[in-house]
Structures are given as C-alpha cells and as structure tokens.
C-alpha cells in the first residue's frame, strides 16, 4: 500500500509540475508583450536591411499592441547582431531580423551562431539574383551568355560583393550548374559592382533586381534571367533560369526574416508570428517593398525554419566545394 501511495504521489507531483510549467508559458503569452519590443538589425542604419526592418516594425506595431524599436548592432558581416539576438533573454521582448548570412557565415568560420540558435517567426523577403549585363553586350539571352562563357573560359568578369558573399556564391552556383568558368571580381558591396558594370570595367553581375532596376529601366543595362522558379515582379518580361533550362541554381539569393532565441516559449512566439505576419500583409509595407523592387515572400515560422535548414545545408556544400570553409 505504501508503495502505491508513493507512486500516486509522484505521478501527481509530475502532473502538477507539468501543468504549472504549461500554465507558466500560457501566462507569459497572456502578459506578452510587457512593454516595447526591440528589433535587432545586424547591419548599419540606412542600408537595405535596416529600411526593411523599420518599414516592417511600423506595420507590425498596431498588431502587437506595443512599439517596436529598431536597434542596429553591426560588425562581422552580421555575426555580431546575430550573436546578440541569439543570446538575448528568451522572453520575446527581443527579436532579430536575420538574413541569408546567418546560414553562410558559420560554414566559413565567421560566426559562432546559426539558425539552430533561433526559433523562426516568419520570412518576409527573398530576392533572386538577376544576371545583368551592359545593354550593348553581345548576348541577349541566358543561353547566349552561357554559350559565350563556354567558348571563352574565364573571360567574363563577374562582379560580386566580396569573396564568400551571397553574390559570389550565386555566381559560383551558376558555374556549378552550367560548367562555365568566370573571373570573379570582388567589390565592397553590390552598388560599386553595378557602378563598375556601368563603366564597362566588368562584364556581368548577379545581384538583386532592386539593385539594377533603375539602370535596366533606363536601358543602360539588361537583365538576362533571374535565378528563381518564378519571374521577378519588377521584371515580368525576364525569364527564370528554370525557363531557360538551368534549374540547379534556383533558390540562391538573399532573404530576410524574423527570429527569436531558441528557448522562447512557443506561446510567445505564436503571438509574435501572428503580429509580424499581419504586419507583412499591411498595404504600406507591401507598397514599400514594391516601390523598392524587393521581393515579397511571406511564410510562417514553421516554413521559414525549414527553409533556413535547407539553405544551411545547401550553402555548406557549396562553400565546401569552393574551399571557403
């Protein structure tokens, strides 16, 4: 009898503890947020990611019921901000706007955190690389461009935003998919690479549609194809790589989304997910993205988390193949 009483008491205690723990999470969600929420941006104020963060914060505040303050925490190509976001208190009061560098930097030994240190809230953006060349280039289609590169190995100078950057990885993915060889020319960002392309100093760039949109509209440059399964909204007449018969390079490119520390209670994360998803659907945010030529990709936390895992594996293999580990 004594043994049965002890087992029953133990079972009751475990159930009571579990109930209190679950109740604690529910209480945390009920009380959340407790004051303004901080949104860490791992890059400088005034840049593209910062602008997206501020537009998203403005659109989300009314749905969250609290103000969202953007804090720029820079350094290490994003690693400093990622680390601060991952090590913040897991109470939902600190969220981080992460970019594709979260899954590339770890493979190059440039960051001690990755997507596994976070719980995904949602994705708001993806920009496929747009292979762009001078308007008077001797090729008008992706096929002609690839044929020229095959016939002239290493002759096409492909600008990027630095070794190991997303645009360098995009160009390298094209090489792997097609078997061609480029001369990779690094710049301190995509903007100077585009400027060099306009000046005739390089032959092509694989940057986001937004970064070449004014020059393409001004007929100074022409975009041959975008590396995605669907055409870019700002370039509806430009075919995709898949349409041109090259599908292996799809999915390469920068993305942005919101995350919280890994141990944040699911109930709190759900409140944030609902608010940020609603904010991303607000007309003013979508208008901001459209006006700036940025691709809208709105996915929930589960889908975003899965995508980050797939990106981590993809870039790990690519970076290893390039010897950039």
TrEMBL record:
PROSITE patterns named among the record's database cross-references: PROKAR_LIPOPROTEIN (PS51257)
Signal sequence, start to end: 1-22
Stored InterPro entries: BUG, Bug_dom1
Matching Pfam families: TctC (PF03401)
Gene3D superfamilies: Bordetella uptake gene, domain 1 (3.40.190.150), Periplasmic binding protein-like II (3.40.190.10)
Superkingdom per UniProt: Bacteria
This protein's UniProt keywords: Signal
Entry annotated with the keyword Ribosomal protein: no
PANTHER family, per database record: BLR1237 PROTEIN, TRICARBOXYLATE-BINDING PROTEIN
Entry similarity comment: Belongs to the UPF0065 (bug) family.
Protein name from the UniProt record: Tripartite tricarboxylate transporter substrate binding protein
């Amino acid at each position: 009898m004594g043994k049965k009483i002890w087992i029953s008491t133990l079972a009751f205690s475990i159930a009571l503890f579990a109930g209190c723990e679950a109740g604690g999470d529910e209480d945390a969600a009920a009380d959340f947020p407790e004051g303004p929420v901080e949104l860490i941006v791992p890059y400088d104020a005034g840049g593209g990611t910062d602008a997206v963060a501020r537009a998203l914060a403005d659109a989300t505040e009314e749905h969250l019921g609290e103000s969202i303050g953007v804090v720029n925490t820079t350094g290490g190509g994003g690693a400093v901000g990622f680390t601060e976001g991952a090590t913040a208190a897991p109470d939902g009061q600190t969220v981080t706007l992460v970019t594709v560098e979260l899954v590339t930097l770890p493979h190059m030994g440039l960051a001690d955190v990755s997507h596994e240190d976070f719980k995904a809230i949602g994705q708001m953006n993806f920009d496929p690389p747009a292979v762009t060349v001078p308007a008077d280039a001797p090729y008008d289609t992706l096929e002609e461009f690839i044929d020229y590169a095959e016939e002239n190995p290493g002759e096409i100078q492909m600008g990027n935003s630095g070794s190991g950057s997303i645009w360098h990885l995009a160009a390298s993915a094209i090489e792997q998919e097609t078997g061609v060889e480029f001369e990779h020319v690094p710049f301190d960002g995509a903007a100077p690479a585009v400027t060099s392309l306009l000046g005739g100093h390089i032959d092509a760039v694989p940057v986001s549609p937004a970064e070449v949109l004014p020059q393409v509209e001004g007929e100074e440059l022409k975009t041959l194809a975008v590396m995605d399964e669907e055409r870019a909204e700002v370039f509806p007449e430009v075919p995709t790589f898949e349409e041109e018969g090259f599908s292996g390079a799809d999915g390469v490119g920068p993305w942005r989304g919101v995350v919280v520390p890994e141990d944040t209670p699911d109930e709190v994360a759900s409140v944030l997910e609902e608010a940020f998803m609603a904010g991303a659907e607000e007309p003013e945010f979508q208008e901001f993205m459209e006006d700036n030529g940025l691709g809208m990709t709105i996915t929930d936390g589960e889908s975003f988390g899965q995508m980050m895992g797939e990106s981590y594996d993809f870039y790990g293999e690519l970076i290893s193949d390039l010897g950039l580990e």
